[in-house]
């Protein structure tokens, strides 16, 4: 099944000419979708029933619109578009069909097309940051996880230098299903939170800091060496990856 | 409650003088146990019903024996002793009460005192290694996870240079609840496995390699940059950390 | 033979005053050409019958034109001008003699003057990339190799996180004469491809990525540590070097 | 086909019970050989007619003997055993069948079982070192390439600080089919040789040096930045990899 | 004043031939003492009335004895000998005059000759460690500070992964005059302690850890990036430097 | 006590409705102040009687104004606003109540609201720089320390390459209570100054330099390895941190 | 002698009121000159009779003019102004007295005020570069050395990849008094030149290159590890330092 | 001229059969000497009249003896054998002809065969070290320079933390012809000495130190960034290179 065939099929779906079930059946047999400018892996989305993710950076609004339409047509309820700057989001929105809802989250640089799903995970995902500068990466994680069907609790600016700020949220931490900790500079928050919690902690070093923070290296090494159990680490500033993994864990016990 | 009081209490429990429920109640109120040479955090174990872990390295057999006895007396069913060399294990075993079972796993350098629990997690933890040299760290992860109540599937020596070796195990990978991937050198296995799987992947860089592997740095950077979603990373050679986290995730949907 | 003499000679060749054979003979004896702003090594080109390469960056259109004219006059069939930005290419083209063909490849930032040679290598050079962002470096390799007389097969966006995309091209990989693999982030593609192939694999780390990719360092280390045999590595983003070396290998068994 | 079946088949071949053609046929269908302690990829060897390589480090003499016997029985003419220390080689030799020839090269730490093949490549592989300390890695490359059917020319101790030593070998360099350059410290030799040669140059940084050589890092970076075309780099001290790749290139134009 | 003269003077002091005041007067004018194997800076000690420090590593017992005797003779009440291994300490003690008291602290690898001074600082120096493995460096700091006239409070094994262990010592932290925090691995303790305290915090990264702790680098970077005010850092494992500086600060308001 | 309540209280204080003592009493019980965009830790300031510090970077003039007003209303005599660029300072000043004094120090990028306190430390803080380029960071340290009640002596451009420049200030160095040394490039000044002084030396590596200075890394390593006693180090370019710590030390013997 | 006094003295010299000898005598006694914005070390210049150097970067044209005038008035024949961009040079030139000659070298970013001295060194300084991109740093070295009284031989673009280009200049290399070698990328030229020469070689790594050249780090390490004797290294891109040191060496045997 | 011929010639020289002049004449025409285990470059020695250097590490006593004899026979007055451990020196001495003088310097690990030449340089070479641990490398430099005909002044243990120790030697520093500065840890001594001196300073970082000295890296970076003019740097611990270069500079004005 080459690109033209796939495009034709998706258009037929969009126009109602071909039923979704039928199309899904045919797509299941094609290992992946080659639209020339991007290869879509439709299998994972279809198989798991979770939103498909489109990496927005470096794609034109037209390309994003086409991919999004194709995915929604193929049965996705929501499409997550990441790394989308404000300008691109405005352009994207301007050209959309009125029927296709689109919500843009500027701080997270994420747009969600379709319907934001209700939370259906096991519990709540707590997202804690060391300082206010970590917030954009934290929001990327938060919106990602929310769009994947999770309830989020935000604990922002609870860095270890003022421990009482963190300790006043001990309950939320103890009750969390998964915790994402974001911190730049010395990255100490991950260990402290993990010491208080009973659940998996995903540590995200951020590039916040200066001098010997080396754009997140200090936080990265700090988090990798955490003396607390249950901590694992993703790439510097990788809010999306943390949100995605957190959602995966928070849906462990949930029937797909 | 100081050290002497705690020791007395534990001895009373061991001798039956004080009931376990009673002791647990009293211990719950003491934040931690100070034995002079080691502080035990009895809360986590008691609260969660999972085995307590003793870091064996740098402790004498006498100390390990005392801690282990105290923990078993306090109601633990199993005690995991990590980083225990063969000699130390032999010495430890020699001085043990006959009643206290002790199994030693030399490759993993782990001993388990008490009763190895039956698997009670959601699914299976798959442990995959790139080469045979990664096996000791893999076994540390495996025995840790097993002692914490998980069923383990070992896929050893399935490095990416011979892809068919890995692909012949696609079923195990697709069915896994959590996957631990261990690899040194270029660490590529984590991305490949995560691309095949639908579950969280915990990547463990190992110090296997030479030259520009820089004792695991190449694998560490490779894994942190994985283009596959759902991957997080722990410290180089941290088999225990990976096994512990994997167990945590594999028990997400299970009533504690 | 100083610069003025050489310029005079090349002008005489250009005007037909001196025959090409004659000029070649005289040039063979001069070890290299000093045009003031650039030293041309005419020996290699003449001896090997392969296109001469001009490094365009930092040279004015006039300088490039002069060098190119001199080289074509001296008997070269094609001249490869690398690292040439779009603006400079337009300027260069504007001032060219109509007789001198010039084709510009903007993504590769390469212009080819003269006649693009037909493929005369042993087999095909496969060029595989992990993601779409690697494409500019890949095209630099591709156009370089094509201008040196090779047939190219492009396998773009076949990163290891979606293994089926790569595996659907197993035939092209098995049949290749040489393979160039370009990848940023974790650079795992090189090992996986080399495991599937029987031919030399030239790995090009790209600076694609963020955070702990360290502008190609993660991919570089990963590729240097490849556990697959037959892999060697060139500098980060060095598409030209990879294309040049691939051509060299693909012409091993071919009479010069 | 599990391990027992394979072992049985190989024994039948060894005893003449099953013909080699038959066995080869059956083995072609089994993706790989699992002997428990090592997985053999019989495909590549059989398909390409080149010696199989056994990584000796960390294997017992018994294991090496079993693998070697199996491979020879399966039709290999030569088996290359790398990273084999002198003691292990002596032990290995002691237990061998008299019929199975074994030659040990202590400096290269390589043993060759079976019959060393005659050179059947396109030309000669030149191996050049910067200093005498690079010799062990150079010999690993040399014996590897020789065992894979190549003629070797050794140019040892021709470092750039005494350029006349290198220049007195210009002929060998100009005539080479492939060149392997090994150097520690500043690694400058690779660029100089590549500037003199018309063929692919494989650069091997060695860990020779002290202080700011950082165990081969200075040479590695130097070689990756070579301003000469046609140079690619393998891992620090990776003599085997260089020899293997050089052989691959030297057999490009040769019918398999 | 050359070496022989100085030695003679010191011997005269030791024998009572020259009065201490007299000798001190003469020494004040000589900028430093050259004993051939070591140059003593007698000024600082005399001027400040604090113990002189002898770096024991690499000196023979005879040399240490001579220096110590000279210093005590010159009016020092205590001489601190650092980096002194157990064997060397035993040898040193064996040859000492009975009149010269010598106390050896094996874990700190420090010997104190003369009289350990009473605490005369402003307040107490708290020394906190993340784990038990940090203890030797902590003891080096503790004995140094004690020998310089400070009262020490030890808070060992209060790492951030079990925050309650640290919080149970909030009073000691709030009341400290200076705090020395020692931690390896992620080094997070410094920030947490500094957030609780009102006094200067001297952070000592230790080389405790493995993998990506890089022998203290992770802790060093973490501490340099502390988001808490009042933290400064000394070299990895530099217990002596921390103890010396802490004493300096703790004597700020005390008349010299 | 939520944000609205706190704001209301602060306004009541500002208007005289609630007495300062009363408000302080209430605020003491609230662990921290959450204004939405910033959490204020009022405890430290109130308890210690020292100026509160507001990190200006990334805050709007309105936010800074609100925080500053709240702090002054709560009884602070001075508020230090750091990392405030010239433009932001002008904007801030424009909107201020006339009654609230504001002085801006452009080189230090610091504004001080309220009344600059008189020096009340034990002695003088000497601030020495290696070169004129270190001056902005030095001024950040100087104004910070001055605003915290210290007398400052500036010794700028006294780098070690012209030792007489430094030695002509030996008196100021000998008499200092604390010394802050700022240097980029080789950072040698810290050791030289510490060798001359009897007081704590806080070393601040600056990012001044080029090439192998690596933006302050060379100076940082140099300072961490200082062979002089009494030296500790803060982050690269961390003038504020050095000034804050110096003030803390200079007020050690002073009743709070 | 404070700043005002010095300025007055220099003005008196400029106006003829005070004789140069007299002024020099007075200046010899003052350790250094403090003009507020810059401290001049007049001693070295006067004592050694060599041009004074003014670091132009970050100084206003007025400041440079004042310093230059003062220096020329104090008896200097030439003043070297380094790191002076083209715009600043034009501004500087506009405001100069007509009597004060000023020559600007844009590629070297150096201006020379006064009279360029005739060569009075022992021999010639050869300056060799690997490629044309190294030229600006090379010119900084060349103009510096020329202004300090040296004859310069430029060998540009003689990188090791085309060895014949270098070898055709063997005579100049053999006859040199000192050689400065500038190279980026792999930095191999220093070793090769040093192997051909009998004189001191000053190696200057340049930041020319991309990818794993790491802005001159590869060249720096390569040069530090040179296997040739007589090579020493200065900072990356430090053309001035190399020119200054080369002049110093080239004037070793010359009476000052 | 092959190896056998050369050996024969040298033996004839040794036995008096061939005159030295004759042999020298013949050897001048042979570019270099290949003894199988080492290539001797007899040209430089003969041409320059300076001692030949033999790198002792990794050579057997027999090999060293043969090379030394050949060199002395060829007219060298002294042969410098570097990196020669005490045991090897004893063995070497045992087998020597009585006529061939051999002096061994254990701290420098250097032996000198033949006659130590009288100083014939322009002035004195000062060798300064920061601490006593730098002494072995300093002695390597000192003996090298002495054997090459230089007068040495040793200033050991004059580190910058006790500046008066260095300043008391200002005269020696001011009078030096060349200065070698060796320092580990922070390496500050090079800048301070260069600021005091008027002559070339060769900086040798040593691997002395611990923690963040990173085996000489801190000192290396510090020295490369020296703000003093006239400083250049050699590899970490490269005492020989520094002594060799210093001698070269100290003989600049001396007729060869």
Automatic annotation (TrEMBL), chains A, B, C, D, E, F, G, H:
One of its GO terms (molecular function) is hydrolase activity. It comes from the Bacteria. InterPro entries: P2CMN_synthase_LarB, PurE_dom. One of its GO terms (biological process) is 'de novo' IMP biosynthetic process. Residues 123-255 form the PurE domain. PANTHER family: PHOSPHORIBOSYLAMINOIMIDAZOLE CARBOXYLASE-RELATED, SLL1489 PROTEIN. This is Nickel pincer cofactor biosynthesis protein LarB.
